[in-house]
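Pilot study result, target chain (244 residues):
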Amino acid sequence: MLRALFDDLPVRRPALEWLDLPAVATGADARDLPVPAPLVRFPHRIHLGGDAYVNARDAPARLSPAQPWHVLHRWGKRLGDADVRAHAVSRARAGGRTAPAAEPEPTWPAREEWLPRVPVLVARERAGSSRGLTMAVKAGHNGERHNHLDVGSYWVAVDVVAHAGQPTYTASSFGPDRYRAWPLRGEWHNVPEPGVTQEPGAASRARDVRFEPTAAGAALSADLAGAYPGVPRWIRSVRLERVR
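Predicted structure:
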């Protein structure tokens, strides 16, 4: 149950601090739980640079520096993950906080990050830098938590990330009228419109999702027809080609 609840979620303060408390208070070792490793690695894997992150669903496009980066850093030390620690230090310093000066050499950001359970691909021109183009694309389905009708959406980031993100929550945000809000509808995402719009629900999903990494680039392709009523086949391929 915990794995299903947390595997594909970004860092949330109550969850991480709840996991952190037993280790701090009693010295208990929570490293073998299925939750901490994917949870603490999620933020740097979807980081686009600066304060920008891949903001699928209701996530904000830009993350405030007022986050519990010290908790993330502590878990990075427990797990022996230099990338988690480097990301936490970088974001803490960006927010004007004191952070450790010496850290192991990270490999973050990676040239590409493939998260098959979400599924999301983030690909960069080169490893170790967010400079240049960064591409992200998601498949998934329309029954996800905090869902938008956005199966097949993609992001191309240089300095600016354009995505409407999360509207102000109201009484209708999580009821039958959720998709009347324009930021959540397919028309306001860069998804195809093959004569009909995407429908909500887990049955409206991408199929035949394929991640294709090569030395020259990275691509994600998927058949989006399952998200559209009456459409037999609609392949979308998004590819980042690296400069040789």
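One observation from the pilot: Residues 109-244 form a domain with the Beta-galactosidase; Chain A, domain 5 fold (CATH 2.70.98.70). A full batch analysis is planned for the follow-on phase.
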